[in-house]
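User: Could you check the structure of this?
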Amino acid sequence: MRTLSLALLLWLAASLPAATASAQSADGVFATGVVASVLDGFHAAAAAADEEKYFAALAPNAVFLGTDATERWTKDEFRQFAHPYFAKGKAWTYKAKSRWITFAPDRQVAWFDEILDSPHLGTCRGSGALISIGGAWKIVQYNLSILIPNALADSVVKQIADAEKKAAKDKR
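Assistant: Sure, the predicted structure tokens are below.
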């Protein structure tokens, strides 16, 4: 019977949508799905402006890295920044188009990268890590980046350098 159960789990892993990575062991299939659910719930909570659920997905010592170089926030700092958006009932919307999840050998740490679709920022990438805390997966680091096609990189780099020079000049 165990062979049948393992075969069923492996078949299910092969049948999972592209948004989740399959794992090599039966417990890995389950853990991959759980981690993907945490990430999907994190994005869904933002889209629904559910501040409690959104921040509950983050570990107590979580760090959120935003798209701007100045955006490195602890969980508490990020919540303080984000609270006005959630309070207005409008946070942000990101939907995963694809996702890859990998586990450390001890299965207590997972890291991921995902391609996201955003009505505001277009195609983005989210990446980071989750840890298992008391049997629950929590996001310990989330890094959001805007994807820039290589053909546009030189122009964007120049725009950033010009903006940084202007900001430095304005500070004087």
